[in-house]
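Re: duplicated header lines in exported structure tokens

Our pipeline writes sequence and tokens for each protein into one text file. With two proteins the header for the second block appears twice in some exports. Here is an export where it did not happen, for reference. First protein block:
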Amino acid sequence: MRDRPGRWRTVRAVLQPAGQGAVGAEPVPAYLLACDIQTAPIEREAISIAEAVRWASAQPWPVDLYLHDDGG
């Protein structure tokens, strides 16, 4: 039996430009500056994992998607 059956039902999703969160990565990758692309992380709260994946996939630039449990 799961202790927290609602866990991961909703998440906080954070998008960062691809590679920006990597250890040793440039603070803002050069290709982002050259393309005038969003460089600050953006987030949405209380969405499903499927919605988070669709949201990340719809971005016009490459992103890393980080999911955080809302604690449901």
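Second protein block, exported in the same file:
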Amino acid sequence: MFSTLKKKRSPLRYPGGKAKLFPIILDFIRKNELQDCSYVEPFAGGCGLALGLLMENAVSTIHINDIDKGIWAFWHCILNSNSAFIDKMRQTQITIEEWYKQKRIILNPNSYSVFELGFATFFLNRANRSGIISAGVIGGFKQNGQYKIDCRFNKDYLEKLIKHIGLYADRIELSNMDALDLIKDIDNSNQKSFLYIDPPYHKQGKSLYTNFYKTEDHQRLAKQISILKSPWIVTYDDELVIRDLYRRFRTVEFNLKYSLQTKRSGSELMIVSEGTILPKMSVIN
């Protein structure tokens, strides 16, 4: 079980997830002696990278934050109602009828409990194309596609994964804040922190994320990051506007492959804070 779980840390399928950056971020942490820090992700999403660092004891604690209430609710369930969540998953049939039921919860989040919203987010993430909550169901509503609604719902595997994360709950802090507010709070605290900041991407953010950024949002974020006292790494899509916003900082290009119906290889930027040692940019397949 352990070797299988090492390959995949998060129960969420997340577009643009950065778990493949694990060896690079680990190298950065070690070179800059940040092992005893709190690792902070203001845009946590699937948390695959954060969980990997925690489970390998590369950092002492992690702080995961997401302004998306559904994503926050999911992680709240995993950290606070782990066994009940697994029971709910086991009891729930993976059908089109159930998909419509869970979709209603997503569309009316204030009418349901945190547990119900968290599970609905999880259900649609596993059942929808590419894990995108706003996308259609795998296989189509007539289920006449090559793959069916339950093809990403290996309950035995997901149960092991969720249970394993629960073992680390006392080393995980969770919040549901605007990323800018969290970044300010972290920098004003006395806690030794390292921030990995992976915002909604500039070009494709609107098509991938529920809470996407406009150009002015990216500008405000860059301004706040530029005055951070804590060490940080930012990753972005390689766009001229992003290069201009972070022109005073060191940047490294890299590529990751994502599975969004067809495989694509995206050119991206890693931007690194001043006064730190750059990580070794190993080849990412």
